[in-house]
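Support case: user asked for a sample of complex input and structure output to validate their parser. Sending the pair below.
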Amino acid sequence: MIIELIQTFLLLALAPLVTGIIRSLKARMQGRKGPSVLQPYRDLLKLLYKSSIRSRDSSWVLSIAPYVCMAAVIAAALLVPVIYTGTFGLIGDLLLLIYLLAIVRFFTTLAALDAGSTFGGMGSSRELFISSIVEPTMLLSIFTVGLISSTTDLGGISMNMASTGLDLIEPSLLLAAAAFFIAILAENSRVPVDNPATHLELTMVHEAMVLEYSGKDLALMEYASMTKLLVFFTLMANIFFPWGIATSMDPIALAIGLLAYLVKISILTLAIAVVESSMAKMRLFRLPNLFTMAFILSLLAVIAYYILGVA
Amino acid sequence: MSFNDGLIRKISSMAERLEHRGELLHVATSRDQFVDLVDIIHKVGGRLVSLHATDERATAESFMMYAILDHDGCLIEVVSPVWDGVPFQSLVPRVHAANWYEREIQDMFGLTPHGHPDPRPLVLYDDWPQDTFPLRKDFDSSIDIPRIPREYKYRHMEGDGVFEIPVGPVHAGVIEPGHFRFSVAGEPIMALEIRLGYVHRGVEKLSETMPYHKGVILAERISGDTSAAHSAAYCQSVEQLFEIKAPERAEYIRTIILELERLYNHLGDISGIALDTAFAVPAADGYVLRERVLELNEWLTGSRLLRSINTIGGVNKDIDRDKSAKLLSHLVDLRLQFERLSSTMMSSVSMLDRVEGTGILSKENARSLGCVGPIARASGVDIDTRRDHPYAAYPDMSFRIPLQKSGDVYARTVVRIDEVRESFAIIEQALDRIPNGSICTEFTGAPIKTTALSLVEASRGELMHWMIGEEEKPFRHKIRDPSFCNWLGLELAVRGDIVPDFPLVNKSFSLSYAGNDL
Amino acid sequence: MILKLLRRLLGRRSRTIQYPIEQPIIPAEFMGCPEADMNRCDRCDQCIASCPVSALDFVDEGLQLDLSLCVFCGECARVCPECIVMSDKFELASKSKEGLKVVFTYG
């Protein structure tokens, strides 16, 4: 129980650092130094002691949205294995995880419409349009891993795959991982789906929904999206490729688990930064092409599992 | 270029007086014949360069309206009197390009166009009192104008599922203020209305109070990144008034300065187009190249934006042999980096997907609105002041005019890339052939001529300065920045595109708000 | 493209100058704050007449330049190269409007 709590805190503490590292990598690829990797921490602290201003035309939805999103993301963080395969899995399995993230999306979208500004409405409509194809993709790809390891409890998936060794690398796992990577780009508003660093309100998807917040509310929303990104990374690292994770509470195993986690997160951070820097943002109505491709990949993963060996 | 005889015969039958003033054909006509005469020239392919008014009630007992047209390389100036309180017949039904010019005349002089489809104020705010007209000679610019709140009527589009999105004038990024009102059906844009005038500073009125040698400083600041072109046009106009000619060496230096300005502007625009598609790495590289050119400008002349170089009678600073050699080697280096950058950008599939087919401005629309510059050339309209009305050292330079047909963002980017290559070539030729001599001709005394017209190809297109000069300062100074002609093109180009593509199309037009508003 | 990006991460080609620890290189032609040597001044008033924004004026202590008006056009230096020179000073901020009035004193 202590280890599970500690590993969740580790995830919550590392989240802004991962965002800072992605920004720094992108800056270096553009030929400039960029802000320090600790800058997101400073930004959040600064926002926390500023007051929030809410539009007069908004309702209670706008006031509770940051808290709901924060709570849902922390609950999701409790469910994923970080360095040890034990989690608070008794409260729920991968279905609960997907729908916790869906609550985040639902409330963000609703609150964006609440303030009555045009940009919020545009952001909401685009976000729902994107998630209509991406959510089933995510579900299918995580289900595939559940199929492969015969359980839907996230800690259990991790444990089964880690202890069985490298035999479990099969085509369906790789197809599901590829589909999930595209889902990461979509859910966390990265290029080519959305540009997180843009100042053009007419092109924003996620940022447009967050335009109305200020002060503490904004700090919570920003932190929720940073933590969501790290939760996705952790899923990719420890559900799809969990080798290295600690299956017992042995200190050496935990140390190896921590090291393996940091290495996997670093590789994913580098991959996201390179993908973001190497292409332009896609035209909005071309995105279904990309997402449908991801959906087909995840569908193929399930089919491949059944065709290639139910054994 | 010689004038078409048939055209001259038709004009002279309707004109009261015909005069050849150098390269310009000056035609004076009556109020009733004005619209028909301009229409005749327009029908055979004449392009409206400017339409403006002057307050000559002290000398001629009326206002005068001037229309300047460019027909096949020949400039024709048609003038007729207009009286206060008598609405004049609007040109817009026949010559669409006259739209904003007539609205500006209405704002500034209080002369009402009859039959104008859109007689709303253009540059003056909603709360400006309705009987005060700034450019009239009896307007006192020292008193405070009382403000009367009123509402500006925007065009409305009604329908099921049609929304209105107002953007600006305060934008999220640090850019110039302008208001864009979209009528959208979900994502596709049905219509766009652009409202400007937020940075109107009264430059034309201010110019009437500044002596010629100080007016250069004002001209440089009309539009921040067009300093060299505006000041060159101003100096050329005043040089026409005093009938002095800048020495050849000065003309060559002016050409080099103008091309350097075109270089850094186009580099910035190309990088901006990449940035607005979130293609950050080539955009960053492009902005570094632009910064290198600005640093080159500063090393060469002391001013990053090429200010304080043009002066009446020539230029202020010389380029000696040492600087010339270093400049050439810097340019060779920049050219290599630029070629690498443009090939990366134009071969990226994700970028090409965004820019091809977006923001199409058809050739007919570009022509009928009188669009100029790279925007017109990207839509297939073949105009360039450096070739059609050469000035400075351009008659001695050999360069191509890039032309594209598709009129989309891709075409505008390719035109700019080609123009950058041509600018490199022109600077090299100028540095190679620059003759020895002085860099400035002295000017003293009073002006000999009364009117002057100067056209310069700035990075955005054809720029015009027109002047009626008095002894110490201009009597009337009409400035027409290329952006004035091109803003309406943007309204047409975005139709049918989706809202997220608008910033990309806007950046591909890359128009100046300050140059438009004056 | 991806290889080029990865190579950039490994190299150290950052173009950022750590100002104010690193100072930028000021070219010789740079037009910074005008500086007047009042020992050579003969009060011909040509500099005041040439300024397009009327930023120069004579006060009791010497020549006053109002930096809030100055546009750094260099006209004053051009009409009086004996006294006025465009220096390379560009760090001209002040916390008050009065602080922007620079006076060049006699002697």
